[in-house]
Structure formats: structure tokens, C-alpha cells
Amino acid sequence: MTTPPPLLQVSAVTRRYRLPRQRLLAPAPVLTAVEDVSLSIAPGETLGVVGESGSGKSTLARMVMAFEAPDAGSIRFRGSDPNALPRKALRSLRREFQMVFQDPFGSLDPRRRIGWSVAEPLRAAQATDQTGPRVAEALEQVGLHPRDAERFPHEFSGGQRQRIAIARAIVTRPALLVADEAVSALDVSVQAQILNLLMDLQEELGLGILFISHDLAVVASLCDSLLVMRHGRTVEAGPTDRVLSAPESDYTKTLLKAAGVT
Ligand code: ADP
Ligand code: MG
Q1: Is the pLDDT of residue 9 over 70?
Q2: Following DSSP, what letter does each residue of 38-94 receive, concatenated?
Q3: Nearest to 94 by CA among 72, 67, 116, 131
Q4: Which of 13, 31, 212, 214 to mutate to test the pocket of ligand 1 (most atoms within 8 A of CB)?
Q5: CA 38 to centroid of ligand 1, rounded, Å
Q6: How far does residue 99's CA lie from ligand 2's centre (Å)?
Q7: How far is CA 157 from the centre of its chain?
Q8: What global pTM score does this model have?
Q9: Residue minimizing CA distance to atom 10 of ligand 1
Q10: Strands 176-180 and 97-100
Q11: Mean pLDDT (the chain, rounded)
Q12: Domains of the chain (ranges plus CATH)?
């Protein structure tokens, strides 16, 4: 019997950055941002990655999105390595995994109408045959009105802008969303609305979600399982309930205390 490959399989990835040399003839120091991290996400599953600032979460996200290749280990999306694909094949595969950016203020062009920004991944994937209806559908899926496509970013609140960022991420009907600190800039009440929206979308669309946050309380509320990172390494991973009720690592215990979860 063959089991289908998971949506996303990350196996022992490592990413190093060469830093500027301190002295002319000294070797360039190397920073290991992510070391030996493995995870997998099934269709419809939500995995949370949590860790303090600098723990390597965004570096991991960039590798999953194939913006950067790992120095060691492998990334498989539905069994194939995005970094090994020819440019054109990668462009069309990108429809399948999309990122919700951290800062909807910075990532929405203030001079462009919302519809133009939401359609951006369709243009990037050269899939523009259904742009109008797809944008309308995505806006409705995030609780906005199709007519909002004609408006400009400054006409929306922070929470609405984050909905627009999510509409942009789902406009290609992806199988996987990577959300990096997607609610961190929002007030707690607005955060809860956006987390609910993500949960609804996950159920409706069967999305796999890699949800990254420095805030354990936020991650725990949304995710089936958790991966705790520190200094680029995995310190703990497992089902959310187990990690919360019986954390194995002292670092996780510290995070739990700080988040007031226990
Ligand atoms: P997090 O998202 O958890 O805050 P990052 O992945 O952004 O962590 O960063 C992990 C480490 O890698 C940090 O020490 C950061 O300074 C370093 N780093 C990230 N990107 C680069 C880069 N392009 N060049 C050099 N160092 C980097
Ligand atoms: Mg980050």
C-alpha cells in the first residue's frame, strides 16, 4: 500500500549565513540561522512554529516558500523539491503555496487599488484568465465585499488590511499557507477575529497552514501541533495538547509561563 506524500515535508534543513568579516584576513564568521529542523504538514493540518525573535522562524518560512534553498536537508512539496524545478514549473507550483505577510501596511501598495494587489499572485503565476471573479471570490472568503476591490489601502483598518493580505494569499486557491507573524501587529481583539477567519478558511478550503509566531498563546489557539524553536534548533515538537499539558523542555515551560497559558 502506498500512502500519499504529505503536503509539506521538511527534512533536517540547515541554513547558514556568512556574515561580514571582522578583519581583512580573518575568515568570514558563519551564523547558523536554522539547524537540522524537520517537520511535516498534511492537507488541512495546522502546524505552529513558535520561538523568540532570532530563533530562525522566518528563515524557515523563506525556505518553505522556496525563496531560499537550504544548505543541507531537503524540502518536499507534494513529494517534489521546489528548488530543483525549472523556473517556469516553480512559478506555476507557487500557486499551491502562498505566504501571508507579516506587515500588510508595507506589503500593500498605497497607490494601487485592492483588487490589483490581491491579484498579484495570479499575475506572478501567469494565471490571469479568471482574475476578476477570483479576486471577488477571495475578498468574500475573507469577509470583505467584492466592491472593495476598487478601494485603496488607506480606506481600511488594520484588521481589514490583514484580511486583504489573506485574500491575496488564497486567490490562487493554494493548498498551503505560510503565515509569518500574521497577527502580531494587531490588537488582541482583532487578532482573535483573524485567527477565527484562518480557522474557518482552513476548514472550508482544507488548507494546510504553517503558522509562525513568537507568541505561544496565539499559536496554541490555532494549531493542531507545535514546533518550538530556539537558536535555530527544534527544542520540542508534538501535538498542541501534549506540548501545553506536558512540556518536555524547560524552554517551552518558560514560554508557557510567559504566555500565561498554564
Ligand atoms: P526569527 O524570524 O525567529 O526572528 P530569523 O529567521 O529572522 O528569526 O533570524 C534567525 C537568525 O538569522 C538571526 O540571528 C538573524 O539575524 C539571522 N539572519 C536572518 N536572515 C539573515 C541574512 N539574510 N543574513 C544574515 N543573517 C541573517
Ligand atoms: Mg521573523
Answers
A1: yes
A2: EEEE-TT-EEEEE--TTSSHHHHHHHHTTSS--SEEEEEETTB-GGGS-HHHHHHHG
A3: 67
A4: 31
A5: 18
A6: 13
A7: 22
A8: 0.93
A9: 56
A10: parallel
A11: 92
A12: 1-78+176-186+207-262 (3.40.50.300), 86-174 (3.40.50.300)
